[in-house]
Every structure is written in C-alpha cells, then in structure tokens.
Write a structure and sequence with these properties.
By secondary structure, the chain is α+β, with helices and mostly antiparallel strands. The chain folds into six domains: 18-63, no CATH class; 69-158, Alpha-Beta Plaits (2-Layer Sandwich), CATH 3.30.70.100; 165-301 and 404-472 and 740-788, no CATH class; 313-392, Calcium-transporting ATPase, cytoplasmic transduction domain A, CATH 2.70.150.10; 490-509 and 622-715, Rossmann fold; 514-616, Calcium-transporting ATPase, cytoplasmic domain N. Helix content is 48%, strand content 17%. The chain contains 28 helices and 29 strands. The strands form six sheets. A seven-stranded mixed β-sheet has the order 17-29-28-27-18-25-26. Helix 23 (646-655) links the parallel strand 25 (636-640) and strand 26 (659-661). Its EC number is 7.2.2.9. It is an enzyme of class 7 (translocase).
Length: 792
C-alpha cells in the first residue's frame, strides 16, 4: 500500500526513506526537499502549522510565513538598503532578539563560524547586534538567518526604527512578566508569614496544607510565564552543548518549584513557593534595569540612522523614499531639512550642520562640488545634490558599522573573562551538588535551600558584562567627540602610547595652503607657469595640490599623461617634453638658487627649472595646546614630514616639538617608525597618501577627516572634525575605560569570591542570593555608564 507524503500529500516512492518526527509521530516524506522544509518547520517550533493547515503544501515549496519572510532578504533590490560589499564578501549588521549574556554571543558565533560561506560573525551583547560577512557565491543571507533562528534567536538586518520597536516590545513583555511575578510574590509572602512565622500558631495541619495549595496557585503563573525567558536561554545553551548563565538559575527555580509541589501533595517537607516567586521577581527586575542601562549606550550610534529622512524630493518634484535613492539621482534639499543621502552639491550655497559627526557646533559652508552627507542639516540655503552613495554605503551607515565593529572586538581581558565565566558555570553546578550532599548528611532540613543559594548567588553575569558594557559606552562617547573607530584595539593601545608621530601639512597646519610667491627661471609668464602647475597638481589629492586649483584654465595646456610619484611629486608629458613638479630634489635637483629652502614646490621642463613656488600654511590654533598637553602627559612628539622647506623649522620651533624628520619619503617614514625602540608605543597622525604606509605600520594611527581616502583606509581611527584637541580627550577616555573595566572585573570577581564560601556555609538566604546576583550586574552596568558623561 502506497503512502502519501505528510508535507505535500504526493505519493511516496517505494524504497525511499525520508522521514521527519512531527507532532509526536514519524511522518513519511516523498523527497529530500519536503524532508528539509518539514525539518526546518519543526526545528523552528512551528509544528502547529501542520495542525491547523486546511490543505497540503505544494511540493517542497510552502513554508510558514515566519520562515518564508527570511527569503525576501535575498532580493538584490531589498539588499541595496543594508548590504555592504567588502572585497569578495557581503556584509550586514543584524539586530538580534533573545541575546542575554556572553554565552549567547559565544553560542551564535560558534554555530555560525562552521557554516558554509561564512567569513566572519561577531556578536555584541550590549547593543544586541551582530556583524556578519559571507561569500554570496557559497551561501544566501536567508540561509544564515535561518541558522540563527534555529538556535532560538531572531535575527534581521539592523534598522534603527525596527530595533526601537523591538526594544519597546521586549520591555513591555518584561513589564508584564515583572508585574505578574511582583503580585504573586506579595501574595505568597503573606501566606509564608502564616506558614513559617507561626502567626497563627493554632492552625491545624489541614488548614496549613490549604495555604500551601493557595501558594502553589500563585507561584505557578510565575513559573510558567514570568520565568520563561530564563528557561529558554538555558535550553538554547544545553541544546548547543554549552553552559550559559541562566542554566544554574533555571535549575534552582525548577528544583525549588517541583520540590515544593511534591511537599504540598504528600503533605510532608518544606515548600519554597515564596523563594520561587521572589527569585523570578528580582531576576526580572535586574534584567529589566540592565536592559534599560545597556540601551542607553547602544542607542547613541544606532540613533544616527534616524537622522536620515524618510522621504526625499527629486529635482523633478517627485517625492520618493530616501532609502531607494541610487547613485547619480539628484535631489533638492530645502533649508532646515536633513540631507537624504551622501552626495556633492551641484547647485546652491548653504551652511551645513555636521555636528552629529564632528562634535563641532559651527556649521560648515558648502558650495558647488563640495561633499555633503546624509543626516546632516541644511542651513538657510537651497541645495541641489547629486547622490554619490547609497544608504548602505553612506558615511552615517559606515560610522554605525565601524562603531559596532569596534564594540565587538574584545580585548584580551574580555576574552579571558568570557572563558572563565563559561567554565565557572560548570564549577557552580559541581560545587552546588557537593554542597547539597554535605548538608544533607549534616543538616538535611537546610540542604535544599543552601544549594539553591549557591546556584543563584554565584551566577557570573556581572563578570560577562564587565568589559563589553564599558567598551560600548566608550566607543559611543568617542563617536560623540567626532572620533570614528576602525579597529578594536584602539582603547587598549591609546593608554600605552608614549610617542606621537605627526605629519605637518594638513595636520599640525590647517592644510589651507596659499601660494604666496612665484620665482621664474625662464621667460614663460607667471600666469602660464601657474596654469601648467595647476593642471599637473589636479592629478594629486593633497592640500598642496589644492593650493593651485584656482589657477586652472581648462582651455590651455593639456598633458598627454601624468604620473603621481608618491612622496616626491608628479611627472607629466606634453609631446616629447617631460615636466616635473614637486620637491626640489625630484623636480630641479641641479638648480642653484639663494634661499632655495624658502620654496617648497619646484617646476621643471626636461630637467631644467622653470619656476619655484613659495607656500604658506597657517598653524592650527589647537596645535600648540595639543603639544603642550602631550608633553604634560610625558609623551614625546616627532614631526615626520615630506616637506624639506624652511617652514618645517618654523612650525617645529613655534610648537616646541621634540624631534623633526623632514624631507622623508613614504618608505623613509616607515623606516623611522621601525627604528623606534620597542619600549616606545607610537601613535601616528596623518592625512595624505604618503602617510598611508606609516599609518598602517604604527602601533596606533589616526587619519584626519579632511585627509585622503587612502589615509583613512590605513588608519585605526578617523578624526572627523580635524580638531586635534579631541586626541587628548580620547586618551583620557581610554584611560578611564581601562580603569572602569578593572573596577568592574574586581567587583565581579570579588563579589563571587566572597559570596561563594558564605553561600556554601549556609549564611546566605535564597532571597539575599538573588538580590546580590542581580545587584552585582546592575552595579557593573551602572559603573560603565559613567563613561557616557561628558566630564566623566
């Protein structure tokens, strides 16, 4: 007799052995497709689909909406909004629901790390986000999201508004659970007074047992509903063969509840219904306060995305969703509105408020060809902007992504703490078992509640929260200061820096270079010399090159080719004539000129000097204060520059710089870094292409916000506002972060070291144990939140 497929109702071929356990029975399937779909439905807890369906599914096609919706994220049009491409990999920031501790993060990372096509996944327990990158040739995003769902967590591409909704939904659920636990605790505690304090000493056994049954009625909703999050977290951990923070807590509550049920039914032994209700109430209260505290830190960078307006106005007058804007679209931005996308101004003039990036309150003037960024606020002028980047690749999205990356990068102390926490849970369970055996032999009546106290009091939640919450808060504060982190080691290394290596042009100086004097060696007119120089310099991206831009004449002088010799200058050809512009040693080495050091840029034709240019670049107002502050901190300063003119000495003397290396090539700069003693931890600050190798080679590097893209890509951190005083604030914040992490770890370890022997000796009551454990976590989180304060 032929069988029908339980999933699609088509005949099952003879000899096939595709089966899935559904609703307590083994069901036959007709093919691997139906088997796979049915297994996915079951593993995601959606078996009720089969109970309530009114017709069989199409062959390996119909999936419940909860799973089917994940496939939508594979569509290219939908992915444009949140997917970034990095080398050969795609990258997305995910929102996670259900992550409660470091064990959850470890579980997700461990399970997905072995999945096909995965390049990297990092989970941040503080922000409830994950950074996922994968090879689109090997796997789909929906497949990876399904893997996370199968672990019992919900995951979706991060959107600030949706995460806000999810946060409020979770908080509302916690309030419901907390309310029920609180009400039940009050009722059960009143009954416990009658049962244990013998207020009614003449109660007979029958009425006493009646009170126990009433306590059972009140405690049961707490166990079935209020405590559910703890069981779910514990089950996820056990399912993945690991031990999370909620395992000992869940065991304690279940033991207490079922032991009390047995004592009530058999009318013998002690009941712990008040402990169960109180456990749950205080644990939920602790988690609730902890979630609110962590939310405060996580919201700072996440809320940046809310600055992007929902709608944008095209030049045609049509309004479209801002997230659908594509490269080369043109939009109109009226005064007072947020810009909908990154782009360049093609018409109009205005002042833009970029304080959300730079931390600087003064608006920045913008004219034609100037870049503008999504989320910034237009001043009092009308602008027409050409879109240059989609929402996923915008500066504001990259800031959120880089902050998440930095927060997910764990210092060594955090990795050790997470490892200790995982093994500590196993240790708690073993110690609790031995505690019960000991007290069962010596004092049987107290053995059970002493074991419960050990299980609850020593849960290492605070230990797991000690570092990630501090890092989340400090990176969020750095973002407010206009410092964008690109590497996770920044905060650690910043504390150790004792040598600052800094470029001159565009770093210590404004980079607003002006041409002050031209010395001609031939009969070529000054105007023509400036035109030739400006066309050659148009092939470079450096503050010196921008000094010549105003002399460009598109109707004259066209080079056949121009080559950028990084660190030296530019070399171009017009017919058979070779032109060079740059350092004297590169462009006009043999030219003799008195006071030649007063000229920074030289122009030559076929090896013969044509002109020399004198430039002026004002020193930044904050540079002097920066150097003085660094000296006060005991940090030596080296000015490492490719400039060999007299202005180098002038700047060094004005700023009292310890060491000057001038006329350095990119390789020479890197060689200098390598020559520093191992005891010196270097911080390199630069802005040009020629600084890129040094930025990459330093222990820690910072690129100026006005610098080149190559410099920014090589740096560990980007200073968006070009305000050098932020470096001192960043170091102070790093030092405070290190101090707070140490305080958190000392508190977490000290608390467990003290509470464990006291609990084992029976000196800690169960309700004290749960208050202590919850309070310990709240103290750690609250201590970390001090990093968000402007004055610390």
């Amino acid at each position: 007799m032929s069988k029908d497929c339980y999933h699609c109702s088509e005949p099952v071929p003879s000899g096939s052995h595709f089966q899935v356990d559904i609703l307590g029975e083994t069901r036959d399937m007709c093919c691997p497709g139906c088997e796979s779909v049915a297994q996915t439905i079951v593993e995601n807890g959606l078996s009720s689909y089969y109970q309530y369906r009114t017709a069989p599914a199409d062959k390996a096609d119909l999936i419940p909406e909860q799973l089917k919706a994940l496939a939508h994220y594979d569509h290219s049009e939908i992915q444009k909004e949140f997917i970034r491409t990095n080398d050969n990999y795609k990258e997305v920031t995910l929102s996670l629901d259900g992550v409660s501790c470091a064990a959850c993060a470890w579980l997700i990372e461990k399970q997905l790390a072995n999945a096909q096509g995965i390049h990297q996944i990092k989970v941040n327990t503080s922000t409830h986000r994950a950074l996922l990158s994968w090879n689109p040739e090997e796997t789909k995003l929906s497949t990876l999201l399904t893997l996370i769902h199968q672990l019992g967590y919900k995951a979706a591409p991060f959107e600030a508004d949706k995460q806000e909704e999810e946060y409020h939904r979770s908080m509302k659920q916690y309030l419901y659970r907390l309310g029920i636990a609180g009400l039940a605790t009050m009722q059960v505690m009143m009954l416990a007074v009658a049962l244990y304090l013998e207020v009614f000493g003449d109660l007979d056994a029958e009425f006493r047992n009646y009170l126990r049954y009433v306590s059972l009625v009140f405690a049961t909703p707490v166990m079935l509903y209020s405590a559910l999050p703890f069981y779910m977290n514990a089950w996820r951990s056990l399912k993945a063969k690991t031990l999370g923070m909620d395992v000992p807590v869940s065991i304690a509550m279940l033991f207490a509840y079922f032991a009390s049920v047995v004592a009530t039914v058999t009318e013998s032994g002690e009941v712990f219904f008040e402990s169960v209700a109180m456990f749950t109430f205080f644990l939920l209260l602790g988690r609730f306060l902890e979630m609110r505290a962590r939310r405060k830190a996580a919201a700072i960078t996440g809320n940046l995305l809310k600055l992007i307006p929902v709608m944008a106005t095209l030049t045609s007058g049509k309004k479209v969703p801002a997230r659908t804007l594509d490269v080369d679209d043109t939009v109109i931005v009226p005064p007072g509105e947020h810009l909908p996308a990154d782009g360049i101004v093609i018409a109009g003039y205005s002042a833009i408020d970029e304080s959300m990036f730079t931390g600087e309150s003064m608006p920045v003037a913008k004219k034609e060809t100037d870049p503008v960024y999504a989320g910034t606020i237009n001043g009092d002028g009308n602008l027409t902007v050409k879109v240059t980047k989609t929402k996923a690749d915008s500066l504001i999205s990259n800031i959120v992504k880089l902050q998440d990356e930095a927060q997910m990068s764990k210092p060594k102390v955090a990795e050790i703490a997470d490892l200790v926490a995982r093994y500590f849970v196993a240790g708690i369970l073993i110690i609790s078992a031995f505690t019960w055996f000991y007290w069962h032999e010596t004092k049987p009546d107290d053995a059970f509640w002493i074991m419960l106290s050990v299980l609850v009091a020593t849960c290492p939640c605070a230990l797991s929260l000690a570092t990630p919450t501090a890092i989340t808060c400090s990176t969020s504060r750095l973002a407010q200061l206009g410092l964008m982190l690109r590497r996770g080691h920044v905060l650690e290394t910043l504390c150790k820096v004792n040598r600052l290596v800094i470029d001159k042009t565009g770093t210590l100086t404004e980079g607003n270079i002006r041409l002050t004097q031209v010395h001609s060696f031939t009969d070529i007119s000054e105007k023509e010399v400036k035109t030739i120089a400006s066309e050659m310099e148009s092939f470079a991206n450096h503050p010196i090159a921008r000094a010549f831009s105003q002399y460009r004449d598109s109707t004259q002088t066209h080079f056949d080719s121009v080559k950028n010799i990084i660190g030296s200058g530019l070399q171009g050809y017009i017919g058979n004539d070779e032109w060079k512009i740059g350092h004297k040693a590169f462009a006009a080495q043999d030219c003799l000129l008195e006071n030649h050091q007063d000229y920074q840029v030289w122009l030559s034709k076929n090896g013969q000097a044509v002109a020399a240019f004198s430039l002026d670049d004002p020193i930044r107002q904050e540079s002097k204060a920066l150097i003085q502050s660094l000296h006060h901190l005991g940090i030596k300063v080296t000015m490492l520059t490719g400039d060999s003119s007299s202005s180098v000495k002038k700047v060094a003397n004005a700023l009292d710089i310890d060491e000057v290396i001038s006329g350095a090539t990119p390789q020479g700069k890197l060689d200098y870094l390598k020559s520093l003693p191992k005891s010196e931890i270097s911080l390199m600050v630069g802005d040009g292409i020629n600084d890129a190798p040094t930025l990459a080679g330093a222990h820690l590097s910072i690129a100026m916000g006005s610098g080149t893209d190559v410099a920014k890509a090589s740096a560990d951190m980007i200073l968006l506002g070009d305000n050098l005083s932020r470096l001192i604030e960043a170091r102070e914040l790093a030092m405070k972060t290190r101090k707070i992490i140490r305080e958190n770890l000392a508190w977490a370890l000290g608390y467990n070291a003290i509470i464990l022997p006291l609990a084992v000796m029976g000196l800690v009551a169960p309700y004290i144990a749960v208050v202590g454990m919850s309070g310990s976590s709240i103290i750690v989180v609250s201590n970390s939140l001090r990093l968000l304060k402007e004055n610390g």
